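Example 3.2
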Amino acid sequence: MSAGGGPTLLAVEDTEGGVRVTLSDGETLELAVESLPPALPAPGGSVPADLLARLREAAACKLIARRLFALLGRRLQTRSALRRKLLDEGFPAGPLDEILDRFAAAGVHSDRLFAETWCRDTVRLRPVGRRYLESKLRERGVAAELAAVVVHEIVTDEDQHRHCRAAARKWWRRQRGAADLRALSRGERYLLGRGFPAALAGTVIRETVPDAEEAT
């Protein structure tokens, strides 16, 4: 401990992607170059409490950013899911929210990016309607208004009609027996469950009934 009451700054060393600050109390802090406080004393000088707090917060931000990149490298997640995970891991809320805001401003990650990517991947794998997509996005923590906006941007009216027909044809291929009123009713309920509007589901399930030649 220096005469000024704070630890002594022993060294500031360049590292890959940042700098390492070593203090006389044995603490070592790694932070981004741009986060290095301009008021940092030269090696041998005292680091007062307020400056030490800033260094620790900057070091926490760097650790948080590194952890977020690792998580996003595995799979895209919503902001709320990432925040909850890192809070559970013991990261402080203030620096965590700051880094999440930076990621959003830089286009690295945001709930909009998550929603867009998730919607495109989902409709590529299975034919579903807008209501299904909006519901699943809300379940994952995307705000209802944002979910609706993104879904309508990704899935046009033409897309939804095409997806509905694909879902109906898939349903009919699995059916056995006559395409009677009960079968039509079941098929319509299936399409409703896949997130298509009632009017479209009712029309499409009738338009896609296999004809006699296809049934033989």
